[in-house]
């Protein structure tokens, strides 16, 4: 009975740590967006096996590793202790006493080391593409949360040094592994989905403005920087800029992918409208908008995957 209770507790904490809604709307959406066009282009068994491999990798790296390290670092700095914790503020496993901070830290660092060794083994045994993809994922998680870089604590750095490479190459992974050359539509879909993900992450940071500013060291996200530099209304600026970049990709899609371009334009416009009208001082309203942005992100990823 004790073993059963312990297993149930581990399973429950694991599900909480995963924050599966965020993983599905970012990582899984990016995978689907570039795997859908491959359906029927490669043998069904190969398609299913590759999809399952990417899915498991996304949950392991973006769901487990990234959140372990991020929870640990944000606990040490104190930002999670002051977060309103609706959709933000980490998994809360440390704050609720479910798992000690030291255990979270050891698990995260141990998993990072194990995956880094696996990446090296893949590289030296000839599985170069798999090794490179895994290395990028580990790099993103480690550089985002751990010293000496800890890019999540600096404006712009967290997005471009850590988050973007991980999401872009995850979206590109399916075609890169399955095909001789990467088609243009794969590059387009991977770029758009990565930018959209970063955009809603910027919204995700808005409720944590005060908590991040009180952290030690101070967590100067792009949202904190924009708010402190130009005033609170400009806390939405980073999200608007990233949605604007994603929307600008309609010119790259052009007439060759007109339905995809129209869908992307509509999605980006809807997202920017929601961000402009939301009350920045109401964490519940911001979180409600974020939920709509997650739905838009998933819908856009599938739409781009259908219309290639």
Verbal overview:
The chain is an all-alpha fold. The chain is 75% helix and 0% strand. It has 14 helices and no strands. This is Prenyltransferase. InterPro entries: UBIAD1. Keywords: Membrane, Transferase, Transmembrane, Transmembrane helix.
**Count of discrete alpha- or pi-helical segments spanning 4 or more residues:** 14
Q: Provide the gyration radius in Å.
A: 19 Å
How many individual β-strands?
Answer: 0
Strand content: under 5%
Write the layout of secondary structure elements.
Layout: H1 2-18, H2 20-35, H3 44-77, H4 79-82, H5 101-124, H6 128-145, H7 157-178, H8 184-205, H9 209-214, H10 222-230, H11 237-248, H12 250-253, H13 258-277, H14 283-306
Helix pairs in contact: 2-3, 2-7, 2-8, 2-14, 3-5, 3-6, 3-7, 5-6, 6-7, 7-8, 8-11, 8-14, 11-13, 13-14
Quick overview:
The chain crosses the membrane at residues 20-40, 46-69, 115-140, 160-179, 186-206, 234-253, 260-280, 292-307. InterPro entries: UBIAD1 (IPR026046). The protein is mainly alpha-helical.
List keywords for this structure.
single chain; 14 helices; 0% strand; mainly alpha; 308 residues
């Amino acid at each position: 009975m004790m073993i059963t209770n312990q297993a149930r507790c581990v399973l429950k904490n694991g599900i909480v740590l995963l924050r599966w809604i965020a993983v599905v709307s970012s990582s899984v959406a990016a995978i689907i967006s570039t795997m859908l066009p491959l359906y029927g282009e490669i043998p069904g068994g190969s398609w299913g096996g590759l999809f399952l491999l990417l899915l498991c990798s996304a949950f392991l790296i973006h769901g487990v590793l990234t959140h372990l390290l991020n929870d640990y670092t944000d606990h040490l700095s104190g930002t999670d202790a002051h977060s309103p914790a609706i959709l933000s503020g980490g998994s809360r496993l440390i704050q609720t006493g479910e798992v000690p901070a030291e255990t979270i830290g050891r698990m995260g660092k141990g998993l990072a080391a194990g995956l880094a060794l696996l990446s090296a083994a893949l590289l030296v045994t000839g599985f170069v593409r798999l090794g490179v993809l895994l290395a990028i994922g580990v790099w993103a998680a480690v550089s985002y949360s751990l010293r000496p870089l800890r890019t999540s604590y600096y404006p712009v750095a967290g997005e471009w040094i850590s988050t973007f490479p991980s999401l872009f190459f995850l979206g590109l992974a399916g075609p890169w592994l399955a095909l001789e050359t990467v088609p243009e539509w794969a590059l387009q879909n991977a770029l758009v989905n990565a930018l959209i993900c970063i955009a809603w992450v910027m919204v995700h940071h808005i409720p944590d403005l005060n908590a991040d500013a009180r952290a030690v060291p101070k967590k100067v996200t792009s949202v904190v920087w924009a708010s402190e530099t130009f005033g609170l209304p400009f806390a939405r600026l980073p999200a608007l800029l990233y949605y604007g970049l994603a929307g600008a990709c309609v010119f790259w899609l052009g007439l060759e992918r007109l339905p995809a371009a129209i869908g992307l334009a509509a999605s980006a416009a809807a997202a920017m409208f929601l961000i402009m009208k939301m009350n920045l001082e109401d964490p519940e309203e911001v979180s409600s908008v974020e939920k709509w942005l997650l739905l838009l992100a998933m819908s856009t990823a599938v739409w781009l995957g259908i219309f290639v």
